[in-house]
């Protein structure tokens, strides 16, 4: 009898095949703003933009949803980037003095970015023959000349080398050394001083043989490369920073290290020019910082633009990050909150045009991209359709809502448009795009931002600000105010990145949204729980405030943390959008660790480190308050900063317990190992596998600190009192492995009415479960008679999901950090379990229930449990059998913040998306997408970037882009890499995915165009899809510090009925999803 306990049957080939049809792991796209940008480039012909980063990533952006990503082999900083105009090629310079040529390569109807060839600058002296010229050891500046066929490389030694771009080989005999330039300089200017490094190289728009050279010493030279002579010389004496050559060639503008810029006139004389036409220090006369870059843009009106970065007074505003825009007498100092990387203007580049006539100014900052409309009076900022900073304030929580009804989607978009109206001229740096899916996210400053996540680029939809409801330590400004007219410099705050919070108590910890009633719950750091409802019109109203004491007058507990937020009294104005209906204040005012909303019952449940409460927001009255503190939980009353003090005192007792228990297990463990060895020798057939030895998990002590933290809350209509009657219930799980189940008496709504009677809701404790090992409870879900999760509120009543089976016996799935366990209801007896920690040696961090559809058969689906562990692995288990199916390495185990920020979406089905088109930066087109049953996830790969992954084998979500380019005559692809399996490079170094275009039915769908069709360059995106339904919460503290407990996981407890969804009209449901943060 014993030996069969240690044996199991071998793998079933049929089941293994089915797993391949159901599950597949893919990292698909990266959302957000590139982390640590370092270089910028713009192609005015193709209207695409490139950004390089310090990690060596290259990202090219066209229309919204059209993105190309590449990664250099060496993790070196990208210092400069230059497009070969109209060719879809970009030349990058790294800080190790290597040059890399990238090209957008088409393969099977789609395109990807690929490194074609690279060049390492030689460091040996005397490279150019026997001239003894300085080595090409450090390249300071790169200039593309002759339509991109040749590149001029300025070096630190003052020499200029010329490079053949298609082959990236140096052209011998054309090197320009500083000695050759000095021959044309007057003797009194030489004075035995070197010219210094080459700081700037500028080409002539109409004459590619002329190059404007700027040396660090201040010398400017117009060099004719064909005649090998200097045509004009400008004898500057101030250290040079940058140079700009006006398009007609008659004006040169130089900026200098003392905060000044000079305008030089290019006349026909041959004598060197010693004095500029105009020399000014805009923010003088006191010492100023250097003007790092200057641009001159001409206008037909004669009022030309001068745009420069830096130059601020060193003593007063030396720490400001500014770009100044000067036109005639109008000067605006754009004040940013992060460092300026680079900037460019969108203007005419056709040689036949006489003037630039700039349309927009794009400024790349360290944390965001800001675009200004230069054609509209006042030069307003243009709302970015993508590349908006996800981390404008520190992200504290995220949620995902899918299959948003069309009416709710339109109302949210309308509210967002009222917040950020488009400029009258319609100027923008983006074009095209796809609407449909999104994510709301909570931030440290008390804001909740909604994002469209249906495509490759996250598009901002709407921002909710909760700070206006409270009296904070300093006045909160929702919009960035302009400086007063009499102030100097004339600062104007621009951009939305704000790393500072007015009051840390405003931080949003949990968000829950009901997509059918447009109601939302926002919970914060100071125990505030805000119930909001979407309104299409502005309103002025008073918000009702209720307090709930979770300690229940327990003696011996004194709160030593922060104070509660004081709400503003009286009627308050609220713009169109989500408006507050009720405010619940938890006492003590600790951070909310779990929240859940049931709009059909009008109830919201919330939990902190002290207990949990239930609130009826329809009657604005508390229903239940339960304290979960253990008598030894004094640490929970000290606030977040004092918890570190007890770390040292916790380590020693833990070591003593481990050593004592180890001695007791020595003798018994040796006997057990001998018995296992004898049984293994008696094993019969070779195909019988031995069950892996389980790790022994010591039960956690009930005296452990923070055992009362509420980890999850859950509403369900199930059998709790007896097997004959089902009704509303509420479940709560704590950090000590305790589960509380309450039976609720919710007055039923009148037939045909939406509102329920005014009778109070009652809650009675029905069951209380204590897990043996006292592991924290991560998630709870009730399964119906068919073993499927219960649908969301209103889904069954509105025929949006299949009604649950209320005839068979229900079961409750309790997921702790160490194991999954299924209990029967209403007896709450153990049915099956899987000890994840004992088998795999890891702990559960995130959990989700999802429906997986088969690739081979559209009608075959399975409901499974997916979990993310503290090692970064994703495991999938069958439900309710809890049998392991597959597991994948998703996130590096060292990436604690990535694991903590992971969001699982829920299963769902969607319909075709829609198209949006507008803007300036790249004409784009987005194909419709088709959604299917699948489980998706998001996690942070940097403070400003999310990565999306998929666990479904059906309809992989990935960007498939195409870009029309005009190659020069005779030009060919020069990439040396294999074309058999093109992959999308991930900027964070994670494995790529195979690009395979798919249509909505899963068949190959290549994108093709007729060659003779005259169309402007545009980009195409193949089917994109995201399907999940409702919300999932984030912010799990994986480090063990439970200061701000963020471990509530929303379970995907609804299953959409495919038959019912097919019958829905577009006005009832659409394949939309919202990302909330």
Automatic annotation (TrEMBL):
GO terms for molecular function: GTPase activator activity; myosin II binding; protein kinase binding. The lineage of its organism: Eukaryota, Metazoa, Chordata, Craniata, Vertebrata. Belongs to the WD repeat L(2)GL family. The gene is LLGL1. Residues 280-380 form the Lethal giant larvae homologue domain. Pfam families: LLGL (PF08366). Residues 419-443, 974-996 are annotated as: Disordered. This is LLGL scribble cell polarity complex component 1. One of its GO terms (biological process) is exocytosis. It comes from the Eukaryota.
